[in-house]
Amino acid sequence: MSSYPEWAGGVVNRNYHIFNNLLENESVSRIIAVDFLPFTLKRAIRNWRENILSGPKGDIIYRDFTTKCTKINEKVYVFSTIDSFFSTAKVIEKLKGVLKKIKKNPKEKRIVWSYFPMFVDYFDKIDNDLTIFDAVDNWIEHPSFIKYKSKLKKNYKIIAQKSDLIFTVAKSLLDLFKNFGREKNIFWIKNAVDFEHFYQYQIPKGNLLKKIPHPIIGYVGIIQNRVDENLLEYIAKKNPKKSFVLIGPLWPVFLRKLRRPAIEIKKLKKYKNIYLLGRVSYKYIPYYIHQFDVCIIPHRLDRFIQYTYSLKLLEYLACGKPVVSTPASGAEEYSHLIYIANNYQAFNENIQKALNENTEYLKNKRIESVKKNIWKRTVEKMLNIVEQFI
Known about the structure:
Layout: H1 4-8, H2 14-24, E1 31-34, H3 41-54, E2 59-63, E3 67-71, E4 76-81, H4 88-101, E5 111-114, E6 130-135, H5 149-162, E7 165-168, H6 172-179, E8 186-188, H7 195-199, E9 216-220, H8 229-238, E10 243-247, H9 265-269, E11 274-278, H10 285-291, E12 294-297, H11 311-318, E13 323-325, E14 339-340, H12 344-357, H13 360-370, H14 375-389
Parallel strand pairs: 1-4, 5-6, 6-7, 7-8, 9-10, 9-12, 10-11, 12-13, 13-14
Antiparallel strand pairs: 2-3, 3-4
């Protein structure tokens, strides 16, 4: 669902954490990381430039004009191609050729572990002992994939029928696969947090918050469709003396003919108390969260949000911060520690409430609530299920 160079460049998501914790696990001998398989021309060009023309350093074990496989070290190989834009059969053919070059130990079990519902041609075509699909969100309901809704429905049905194991990030995704006839060997595995990374922090050389007055109400994440810009506009109007800081890249909707932003960003730029700081390295994200007075999750109340589980909520709590959120999936688990708002007025009132009620006691309670919910344990749980199944 991502590319290896994106991870190296600071893109951090569920599959990034799982990949890195699989690497650290002794039972995993090698990982062949298949970069994001493009299905649009724009993404194909980007993949070719970032992953094939340049890409990670290492020993190249296969290369042609559209494909490259690099051995990073004894445990990691990265396979990049843009052939999926032209023919998924070519992807399978080249990947099988690369797998022949990477000699398999007779004792090894080969597992195909996928996050990408746009590509399902690996079933029955790649020699393996187990297929796993890890469902992150419901792409059928994602506003950026409306054009591919029919294809995604077909693909989810194939995934439901042919995967040996299915993991889901949200409980509601269990029902999605149930609707496609799948009820056995499907497990709800929630997101976790890189606790040590967020509990402590490194100070960046240039502090982007230096001239921004407190109280700071902050959000960290991609500025995309799920962010309710009307809610942000409402709370900015109601709180002219509070600073609203948004950290994260603006995600353009690649399916539109015009390259417009995912949300009407002009609405936000006209307010002097809204600060759009852009992408910040994952290395320094904890520092900025620690400087926020209140953290917010201003997501739209739509069907898509029902199938998510907020990673940023866990990261906010690991920093001990008060959180105001719309009722996103998973938020109810922490309802005793965060403020959940069903409408704009309640969201606004909860921001002030969070500022007034913040204490050292509550800070410690928030930290303790996620302290043991770490990725290492989550991946161990996944591998225990895998081992039992094998």
